[in-house]
Amino acid sequence: MSDDEKLEAILGAAYECFRLHGVRRTTMDDIARHAGMSRPAVYQHVRNKEDAFRRLATRLFSQAMADFRAGLDADAPFPERLALALAAKLRLVIKVWSESPHAEELLGEGVKLTADLVFEAHATTLDALTAAVHAERPDADAEEFAELLMALGRGLEVRSADPDVPLRRLRHGVALLVAGLDHPATA
């Protein structure tokens, strides 16, 4: 097994352990056992469970960002492209909520371990949304509109019995916001 394959096995095992036990209760022994490796073999690829969590978060954020960009680049109407892009991050949060009884810890406590990654993903997302809005509606306040879109997405990051509900509400909310761009209220 190559080093990359070993790291993937470790990160997959780490996800399972964090999902099942949370970050605080997971041990390096748990990760090694789930990966089918010895602890010393795991330590050759990650320094500790916090390092495993950060590497896992980096991988998940990278995939979500690739999906976000694909949504923005989709051959679809503007509101649908925005909804597709924002749904990428929302799906990641929904996945954690639906798969783990420790989601609150993973999304709260875990963010403390990855605050810089979260900040970078937020900034990248905001910049890309601002550029997309500006390209589509040059007369709009693109940055303000992008912030509203981000707030809509964050507001929908809640546990739901039906994971399709937040995604449906996201599509509907984006459509309403874009309609507001086309028909601004007069004050």
TrEMBL record:
Domain HTH tetR-type: 4-64
Name of the protein in its database record: TetR/AcrR family transcriptional regulator
SUPFAM superfamilies named in the record: Homeodomain-like
InterPro entries: Homeodomain-like_sf (IPR009057), HTH-type_TetR-like_transc_reg (IPR050109), HTH_TetR (IPR001647)
Keyword Disulfide bond: no
Record organism: Streptantibioticus parmotrematis
DNA-binding region: 27-46
Keyword Transcription: yes
Keywords assigned by UniProt, alphabetized: DNA-binding, Transcription, Transcription regulation
